[in-house]
Write a structure and sequence with these properties.
This is Prevent-host-death family protein. The protein folds into 2 domains: about 40 residues, YefM-like domain (YefM-like fold); about 40 residues, no CATH class. Helix content is about 55%, strand content about 20%. It has a 3-stranded mixed sheet. The termini are far apart. It is α+β, with helices and mostly antiparallel strands and about 80 residues long.
Amino acid sequence: MRTDRVTPLKRKATEIIAGLDSAQDSVLITQHGNPAAYLMTIETLDTLNRRVGIQQGIVRGERAIEEGRIVTHAEAKKRLLR
């Protein structure tokens, strides 16, 4: 991950964006020395969003188990065949 200030981003936005050729590449943008934004490829953003969605599904499943909202395999199969 690279770090750039806002000023160079304003001047060289096209060049910086073109430099994000790798899904692993990203740029931390700082303003007055403080983190202000994160620049990444669309591919990286999509990957992160997919991972968050998977993690949210796992959390919902764990919560359902804790709350006793479970069904047997046979019951699930029966519901799906309706």
